[in-house]
Amino acid sequence: MITAFPSHAGVPIRVGVLAAVLFGLASHASAQAFIPAPGEGTISVSYQNTRTHGQLDMYGTQLAEPGGPREGTDGHALLWYVEYGLSDRIAVHASLPFIRTKYQGCCAHPVGVDGQPSSLDDGTYHGTLQDFYFGTRFKLLASARLAVTPFVEVVIPSHHYESLGQSVAGRDLRAFVVGAAVGGFADDLLTGLHFQTRLSYAFVQNAVDVHPNRSGIDSSIGYFVTPRFAIDFLETFQYTHDGTDWGIPPFGIGFRDGTPMTLEYGLNHDRLARSNALSFGFGATFALTEKVGFFGTVSKLAWGENLSAPRSITVGMNLGFQRHRSPSPP
């Protein structure tokens, strides 16, 4: 059964719900095609649990390590995000995740072996702030049904954290990201249908002599079951253009351009991994009011190379706000 929504009445709240959906479903809020009105903004907080099992090599097959598919990590992330509309065409945003991760398995990076500097893989949780994300989005084209929004974003590590080990918080690399999002409603096909695609390219800081630049395609197709409740099908793709590969069983010896890694590459193999991934998932969003919304997503790796195989569950809340303007003088 298809629920009919009056187009002229449904758009305002549906745009707000769509923004919540797309924030919850994409890696960053720059994925949104619609931007807030001038003087309006969003504060979002989300929690994500990510678990990995085993490691995939340069061919996308399970590494035959002694730990097998049983080894992995259990990660918890808390993300605060703020976005604000500066004008009817420009919005700015910032975020900073807190990551807490534990390694579970046989193949920890032991301290003092092959340059391993820390005990992160000791089987206990280790937490730290990860990277600052600062960005701006520009409304190139927008109507009640379609929006095209280029964006730029910088990624800056909040501090120098450890980046070698099974349970590290991140890669400790700066990046400059450019891209654009296209999204809107397809009511002519099905009332309540919405869509979005985000294309991005990240220029990543050099480490050793490698720039692990990456491209991304994040998409969603969803349906408004009611004007306040939406469900979505999600896709996330990442391709890393340069980096090191994980290869030969039983210990996942790394390679750089087909040649076994030197110690310098080995000490940076987690930062420089040529990680490629395709994930699919589902999400749902509920707008309690026009200012308050809740979202949740579940995603799982469908294909990957040079990475641990993850699945993630995310839940969160969006709170809209409006800056009070001073009354105009008489």
Give a brief rundown of this model.
This protein is mainly beta and 330 residues long.
Write down the CATH topology: Porin
Q: Label the CATH architecture.
A: Beta Barrel
Shape: elongated
The CATH class is identified as: Mainly Beta
Assign the CATH superfamily: monomeric porin ompg
Largest sheet: 12 strands, antiparallel, barrel
Number of strands: 17
By DSSP (H or I, 4+ residues per run), the number of helices equals: 3
- Structural category is mainly beta
How much of the sequence lies in strands comes to over 45%
Give the termini distance in whole angstroms: 54 Å
| Total tally of structural domains | 1
Rg for CA atoms:
21 Å
Strand order of the largest sheet: 1-2-3-5-7-8-9-10-11-15-16-17
Helix content: under 10%
Describe the structure.
The chain is mainly beta and 330 residues long. It has one domain (7-322): monomeric porin ompg (Porin). The chain has 3 helices and 17 strands. The strands form 2 sheets. The protein has a 12-stranded antiparallel barrel. A 3-stranded antiparallel β-sheet has the order 12-13-14, with no helix packed on it. Strand 8 and strand 9 (193-204) form a beta hairpin. The radius of gyration is 21 Å and the shape is elongated. The N and C termini lie far apart (54 Å).
